[in-house]
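Quick one - inputs below.
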Amino acid sequence: MQLELLAPELTLAGTAIAVILVDLFVARKWLLEGVSIAGLLIAADFTIAMWGGSYAPLFNNMLAVDSFALGFKLLFLGIAILVILASIDYAARFSPFRGEYYALVLLSTMGMMLLAGTAELVSIYIALEMTSLSMCALVCFLKDARSGEAALKYVLLSAIASAVLLFGMALVFGFTGETRLGGIALVIQSMSTQTLLASPALTLGMALLIAGFGFKIAAVPFHMWTPDVYEGAPTPVTAFLSVGSKAAGFAIILRVFHSAFGLPNWLSLEWGLVFAVLAAIGMTLGNVAAIPQANIKRMLGYSSIAQAGYLMVGLATTGLSPASDVLGRSGLIFFLASYALTNLGAFTAVIAISNRIDSDLIDDYSGMGKRAPLLSLGLTLCLVSLIGIPPAAGFMAKFYIFSGAVQNGLLWLVVIAVINSVISAYYYLRVVKMMWLGKPAVAEAKAGKPASEARVTTPATLRVALAVSCAGVLVLGIAPGYVLRLAEMAASMFIF
Amino acid sequence: MAPELIWLIFFLPLASFVVISFVFKPFLKDKPRISGYSTIAAISGSLVLSVLVLLSVIAAPEHELLMPDINWVIVDGVVIHLGLMVDSLTAVMLLVITVVSLMVQVYSQGYMHGDPGYHRYFAWMSLFTASMLGLVLADNLILTFVFWELVGLCSYLLIGFWFHRKSAADAAKKAFIVTRLGDFGFLVAILALYASTGTFDIAELHRLAITGALAGTTLAWAAIGIFAGAAGKSAQFPLHVWLPDAMEGPTPVSALIHAATMVAAGVFLVARMFPLFENSPEALTTVAVVGGVTAIFAASMGLVMNDIKRVIAYSTISQLGYMMLGLGTGGVAIGIFHLFNHAFFKALLFLGAGSVNHATGTFDMRQMGGLRRAMPWTYATFVIGALSLAGIWPLSGFWSKDEILASSLAAQPALFYLALATVLMTAFYIFRAAFMTFGGEYRGGNGQPHATHPHESSPVMVAPMVVLSVLAVVSGMANVTGGFARLLGHGEGHGFIEGFFGILAHPLPWLSLALAGLGIFLAYAIYGAKWLSAERIGRMFSPLYTMLYQKYWLDELYENVIVRKILLKGIFAGLERLDNKGVDGVVNGVASGTIAAGRGIRRAQTGQLQLYGLVIGIGILAIVLSLYLAR
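Output:
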């Protein structure tokens, strides 16, 4: 047993306990953030140290430690660090439960990291639940009506999704007699096409798995919780949910479908086409429904549904391309990295602004360019990246994922995706326009406070988080080569 | 010429943008002039280098400089080069951009004097110039597209420069969204070309199109997609609606971006990809027809506008149509020659309009008049620009317009008649503007105290207009000997004197000169000497006049019917309701923040959640069914 291969996850578990203890016995609350970030950095260090090596799977082939898993673990750790930086100012509202908040973020991150490595149905389920349950608790942290309602919706729908997922897993297990992905693949490949076609269990199982995982990534029609939960949850949690949870979902979909159902080719073509159709529906509905939104968190919620649509183009490409072709997978991973930076940047700016003006309404962002020029600049860059305009990361990400799709005969999907990008420019630019071209101080005037053009002050940690995200967005947009090679490496090293 | 020096053409203005934004603007707030100086210095540097490029391209074999490639991104078979393409087309464009940009920046010193956004203005102007130079230097479609979007972004920022005016902010948004409709076609074309050839390299695509490896419907659709992008940027019918509104930006911006350079980028793009068009008759016909229709359509609207900038804006659309017509019927040399001449005289006309605005405080020509005495320099240079635009021998506009008329006559008589009618309209509307602005008696400007006694603009504004007016006279001489056409590909040469006077031996130039003369005479009769009453003519043709003045109601059609009624009220709102409101209209989700927790939970348990679960179920069913049906 090589327990040291679990060092990153164990570090996070230890850190979570340490944070709770610190919260109990130490009065200086800034230590909480310090300890959490230190723990995350140590875990990242462990992960980087393992990068590039090749390791045997743990626990009788249940947990893989391949570059795919390691790459995703790094992504999750980075996301968690940025989320914690962005939370520091906001977390004052959670007092006296700040320790629990950070511990839950760490535990949820740990769940995601495990999820990236799991290669066996039951452990997938456990890792998924670990992520989701921590997330549910985080969603209701504001303890007001909206937060509570959001958490309840998330819990109930998450439970439905889990049930659906378990049912799917049971069917796949019943059909193949295996829970390990590698084993499932071997059994399926040993069967004749007639047997496979004749059995409803495999088809139904696959459909239920798509639905269960689709909930995590907010794929239409399993997306309906997204806007409500995004709006009600504390904003840092929304940010975490929109990138961490989504990236974890894509990681596990990629592993399950590529490893277990990757061969024979007609089977992978089938789920590839399902994802292609879901992608088309998802991006169209997300973008169109985002247009009339007045609340920026809700708008970003629909935007994330649309972005999940673009991401599913990568899944479709993976399904349609030969198993050796990494373009779909590496494009998807690169898109996830770019989307994570972009969305975290956007949410960081939203946290900073709404903390001061006490509103999430897009109208109240009017004139923000004057009141908080740097924040507005950062938010503008992130929104430009979400549209996919160069030189922001979003352009490169879309470009890679779309060119992979075109190479594998999905031109129709890319045409839909590009039309969608044009539509999406409308609602993203509305915020930009409001910030730079609107008159300041609507919110204060409405609330009866003296209309001021006062500058919005921002705590240093939020500024660091925003600066890191924006720098990342620009680097990925202008010099994507290095990250792309990492993504390619992660995509090509599957153990199963 | 060393590649490093050519890169510098692009990097100098970029450096100016960076320095202004990150050094001058934050730290030298009270010394705004320095931003103007740094912009002028950077663009002068680029201009000198561009002239050197042009000279070495003329000297080079095949008129093309070979440049080394730099690999930008290589991943899994997708290789994107970061390279330069320096041929005669690039060299000509570089010269046009740097000359006009330099003149406009000098002029802006006076025009923007005292504006609180002085730093910001020059920062964006530098960025725009850099992006535009990058666009013409790029050797592959991805890089082209990156710069293509960047110039669009700068244009958006500069149209909305005076963002406190709602009209400016709206115009900026309109320009951005309308041009993106065209860009969508461009992007699809890039991807389709990549899917069928596996390359983004422009020279490689040229080769494939010429050898016939790239042909048939793929080529036709790709070329038409590229043309869609070009039509958006170059304001071709029916995507022209954004350009007149874009006049909300500062006038020097209109001169540089919305007359001489960015709007000409569409024409440049078609010229850049010309081998693709040349080998696809359908695409080439599309270019010619859209160009011809745009030329007359925009000119007709220019006849009735009262805002001097709008007259010139419609004129720009119309002239861009001419360029497309020239490309579609005659080839690169003819279209680009008109672009070259147009850049100078149209920038001149815009700067003249800005100068007049400075003196009178208005753009409405009905409040001007009589300015020829108060503003002799502006008057003289404006008339030179107008004569050039009208195509009077031997000014520059004459030479390129004549070539377009000749090539359209050879290709398609119907297009020739459209172009010929446009000649009459062009001469009429521009001299209508000239007589209304400079002729007769002064009508008081915008009524502000400083406008009661208009006076000539400062030398810093007059000097660029004088330089441009010299160019508006002589730039056409570049092709009198056939030199310009030979540089850009083909054409026969002859002596200067022979070319200069010999053209008058043909009947066609006399026909167009006669029409232009008639246009000027009509304008004089109505607005100069007032033998005919403009009001009475307007009443006589009242329905026609209203239709033109309302711009054929296209704005209303786009905005009210398509955007508001069909998209916003219909499709978007419907989908949102379907997704969000579900079955129960009473349950409006989490919108109100004041409900107590218990009530919130109760609400959450009714209606909506069940609906969400139901949708999940339906979704699963749909996936299973589609998996079965697909077999």
